[in-house]
């Protein structure tokens, strides 16, 4: 599962499962952080640092979801098919991404 080298598309179910796994791991880490800081220092520090971690994580998650919409706008605006991201992406796909990004960026300026 982790060492796929084929160019097959990722299903929505698989993407959702991976997302849930990483989100779950971040909450497990937050819990471990809280227990460590509560035991080693004090509850006030544990609450503060765990809240800071979760706030930062949720902001980063929101920004990464926002990037999906930016890519969607880029590929929709340029009317090009989104490249398939696979091992050994060929130069035509890379040129399409660069061209789409450049033309979209110039439109904004």
Overview in brief:
The protein has 109 residues and is an all-alpha fold.
Overview of the molecule:
There is one protein chain. The chain has helices spanning 12-40, 43-77, 91-108. With 109 residues, the protein is mainly α. It folds into 2 domains: 10-66; 78-109. The protein is elongated. Mean pLDDT is 79; it is low at 101-109.
List the helices and strands in order.
HHH
Question: What is the CA-CA span between the terminal residues?
Answer: 43 Å
Number of helices: 3
Strand content: under 5%
Oligomer: single chain
Tell the overall outline: elongated
SS content category? mainly alpha
Write the layout of secondary structure elements.
Blueprint lengths: L11 H29 L2 H35 L13 H18 L1
Helix pairs in contact: 1-2
Notable features of this structure?
mainly alpha, 109 residues, 2 domains, 3 helices
